[in-house]
Amino acid sequence: MLSMSDDSVMMKQVQATHAPDGREVDVAPLLHLVEDILNRATLQVSFVFISVRKKAGQAHAEMEEKNHQISYSIVLDALSYVIDRISCEIAYKALGGADAHGTTMTILETLTSFQWDAKLVMTLAAFALHYGEFWLLAQIYSSNQLAKSMAILKQLPTILEHSGPLKPRFDALNKLIKAILEVTRSMVKFKELPPSYISQDVPALSAAMAHVPAAVYWTVRAIVACANQITLLTTMGHEYALTTTESWELSTLEHKLTNIHEHMRKELATCHQHIDEKRSLEEYKMLVDMFEMIHIDNMKVLKSLIYSKDDMQPLVDGSTKRRVSIEVLRRKNVLLLISDLNISNDELAILEQIYNESRLHATRLDSQYEVVWVPLVDPSIQWTDAMQTKFDSLQSTMPWYTVHHPSLIRKAVVKFVREQWHFRNKPILVVLDPQGKVVSPNAIHMMWIWGSNAFPFTSRREEDLWNTESWKLELLVDGIDPMILNWIKEGKYIFLYGGDDVEWVRKFTNSARAVASAARIPLEMVYVGKSSKREAIRRVLATITVEKLSYFWQDLTMIWFFWTRLESMLFSKIQLGKIDDHDPMMQEIKKLLSYDKEGGWAVLSNGSNIISNGHGNTVLTTLIEYDLWKEHIPVKGFDLSFDEHHKKIHGVTYPCCRFEFPNTAGRIPESMRCPECHRTMEKYTTFLCCHDVGNPHESSLF
Question: Is the pTM of this model over 0.90?
Answer without folding.
Answer: no
